[in-house]
Amino acid sequence: MFSNKQIERIKKKQTPFFVYDLNLLQNTLTALKQHAGNDVKIHYALKANSNLKLLDCIKKAGLGADCVSGNEVKQSIKCGFLPNDIVFAGVGKIDHEINYALEQNICCFNVESISELFVINQLAAKQHKKAAIALRVNPNIDAYTHKYITTGLQENKFGINPYEFEEVIQILKTLSHVELIGLHFHIGSQITSLVPFEKLCTRVNEINQWFIEHGIYVESINLGGGLGINYHEPDSEVIVDFKSYFDVFRNFLKLQPNQKIHFELGRSIVGQCGTLIASVLHVKKGINTNFAILDAGMTELIRPALYEAYHKIENITSENSTLLKYDIVGPICESSDCFGKAVLLPETKRGDIIAIRSAGAYGEAMSLNYNLRKPAGKLYLK
Ligand SMILES: *Cc1c(COP(=O)(O)O)cnc(C)c1O
Description:
The protein is an alpha/beta fold and 382 residues long. It has eleven helices and 16 strands.
């Protein structure tokens, strides 16, 4: 995965740090744009990784931004995304965040509850503005992903349920500072089967039709993100199969004339371009296993501890060919601070360099200050 020259650079830098392959990011963006086609708008979901260097590449590729906090809106504007390319979602937008986004004239608020409709209307009125909004609809679709990253089931906190639509329409008639321009859907993350997306299309068609029958045409249909990446064999699929993903929507969505499609992808754009690099501090014998204790932990990459996520782990400096089993753990005072159990690695010793793959999404962005850890370093490969 890394050339010998790159490994030499990696060895010289104080661990832990994230390595970002900007060349791979560029190639991923090229593939994304090629397969999405010209008639759709892609918004990059900043929450996956809001690193400025990555954002700069993404903005230059012509993507818009999908934000879930006021500071993400701020970060995208600072990075040069046009306000008109920014959408803002989230179940609990704070008043000052809404005010800021209104001042910046962002493209659209994705509204997640009836209560929020009233609040945005009220705050927009104070600024003498009309806020463009999309209703985030909860389509009740199982994304078959980890329960903590499924978002489109009726029991989840996200979005407005179809049984509330009649009420929403009545309320919208009374609100003069919001304008409904779109329907928004996002069913979850790390979705590795295309079946949930097919089901989503069917639901979107029904819901779109329902609104048409009730006299409401929306210009924008936002299908969210969620396309999963290959954590188990990153090298066999460094760039996700965007073609098959977009084909699903081309084949199954039935749109009204002039409706524009939006997507909000995060993980599938940045996931494979990042790797977390750590050093082995100690190897110690356990009862049934060996522990390789790293200088990186859940504070740098929380996904395994938070939702039992798998990351491929490699020893990139061992010259030994004997394979042994290790539990790969971090230095944090939590037993969930473990990157992988019974991982087969070439015999590993103190000072070896470990690569934790596919850490570009929800790695750096979710890092913690817990145990007063300082932020991991960064190395950019071109
Ligand atoms: C997190 C999120 C996304 C991006 O999800 P990925 O799985 O990273 O593609 C898109 N839209 C919304 C509303 C989100 O919350």
